[in-house]
Structure formats: C-alpha cells, structure tokens
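Entry for NAP complex. Fields follow.
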Amino acid sequence: MSSQSTVVLITGANSGVGYAASKAIACASANYHVIMASRSIEKGNAAISAIRAAGIKGRTSTIQLDVTDESSIAAAAARVSLDHGRLDVLVNNAGIYSQAASLKAQLENTFATNVIGAALVAEAFAPLLLRSASPYLLHVSSTLGSLAVSSDPQRFDHGLDARAYRVSKAALNMLMVQDSKALGKQGVKVFAVCPGLVESNLRGEGEEQRSAGGKAGDPDVSGQMILRIIEGGRDADVGKFVDRDGVVPW
Ligand SMILES: NC(=O)c1ccc[n+]([C@@H]2O[C@H](COP(=O)([O-])OP(=O)(O)OC[C@H]3O[C@@H](n4cnc5c(N)ncnc54)[C@H](OP(=O)(O)O)[C@@H]3O)[C@@H](O)[C@H]2O)c1
C-alpha cells in the first residue's frame, strides 16, 4: 500500500509532542505516511481530523496502541506489517508524568509506560524497522532524566522533584543506548530526543499545567526537531541524547 512512502509510526500521537510531530511530518512531504498511534481510538480519530484540516501533504492513518498492553502492541505491529510490510520510522513518544499519591505508585505507573512500554514497542516493531532501507528509532526522553544536568548545580534545571519521571527517563536513555548497540549495527539510527519544555497535557490539562506556568514553548518546535532528525539532519549525533541545541550530557 505505501511501498513508495516513508512509513512513520508515532505513539501517543493524539496530543502534545506526538501530535505536533505527526503534523510536521505529514505537512513536510507527500512522501510520508504517518500512522498516528493512540491508546484511545476516539482521541486518535479526533486528532487525525484536526491534522487533515491543517492542510497536510502526506497520508495519515490511525491505529490503536496502548504501550502498557502487550496484546495491543502485538496487534498494532501485525497491522502495520500487513498494511505496509515494513516501518521506516518509529517515534516512541507516549509518556506520562504520574502524580499518583505515593512514590511507589508513581514509579510503577511511570515505568510501565515510559520504560517497559517503550522497550516492548521497540522490540515489537524492530523486525519491521529492519525491513526498511533507512530506519530510524527515536525514544522521546527528557533532560529531566540527565544525571549530568540533575547533579550539576550550575546547569539550568526546571527545579521539579519529579523523582519517578526523572528516574524513568534516565532508564529510557539506557534503553536507547542498548537499542542503539543492538540495532545500530543493522543500520537502524537510534536517538534519545528531548523535545524541550513545551505545552502539552503531560503535567495536567489545566491551562497553568499545560503551559508550565507560562514557561512552556510551542510543541510545533519539537515537531520540527523530530522531522529534522528523521530527515537525516542530526545523523552526526546518532546513538546520542539530543535536543534542539545539540547533544545533552547523560
Ligand atoms: N511537554 C514537555 O514539556 C516534555 C518535555 C520533555 C519530554 N516530554 C516527553 O514528550 C512525550 C510526549 O509527552 P507530551 O508532553 O506531548 O504529553 P501529552 O500531551 O500528555 O501526550 C502524551 C501522549 O502519550 C499518550 N499515552 C500515555 N500513556 C499511554 C499509553 N499507555 N499508551 C499509549 N499512549 C499513551 C497520551 O495519550 P492520552 O491522550 O490518551 O493520555 C498522549 O497521547 C513524553 O514522552 C514526555 O515525557 C515532554
């Protein structure tokens, strides 16, 4: 069906960074087919309607994918295999910032999505990436997971405790290194990507939380950064943890 297209799958594509990346990629060229994966098919359908109204050039489709549900991951991978026969780009974007009452619950929720979910999605789609002539695997991480930034009092930090979230993103960065070692020698370009502090539902759906008290930027900038990576503009930094400005220290 999409043999001539570059097939891109983005998890958590109905909102925030995932939505912005879907839009940037689908607007960039008629050659892209963006599969917008959402855990809620209703939210996915609403997102795809909004994106089509934005005047995109490429093709878009939705797929149900809950990264904490192994049967949902397996069904999505089987569907993409059937429809496209391969995957060129996987953006492992779905993530949460748990505000559960206890640290234990925060850690459990956050790891289930941000680490275990990301690992299982990458594992399930790796065989499809290996069928691509130029595959990319992006794990959407956060500077909040950088040990170097967190432990350096001289560096800018958001000041959030966000303990479980930070630990999950540090673990995700190690997952990226392992994926890069395993898949890199088979031609997959693997990155950990910090999209920057941008407006989204990550911190909550109220205006104050969405904008991080006015500090958060435009997620379209993150979408453009992700587009640049998958178009080869950051290939010099493959295997690294990158943001808009360069390479983030581990
Ligand atoms: N925004 C920032 O300032 C910022 C900064 C650094 C890193 N990040 C990272 O950017 C990524 C995207 O977050 P965002 O800021 O765009 O937040 P967001 O607006 O809350 O979007 C998160 C997306 O992930 C989805 N999701 C959550 N749990 C899922 C699951 N179990 N299975 C599938 N999808 C799931 C959400 O679906 P629902 O809509 O159904 O909840 C939503 O589509 C995350 O990995 C986050 O850690 C964001």
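NOTE: The longest helix spans residues 103-129.
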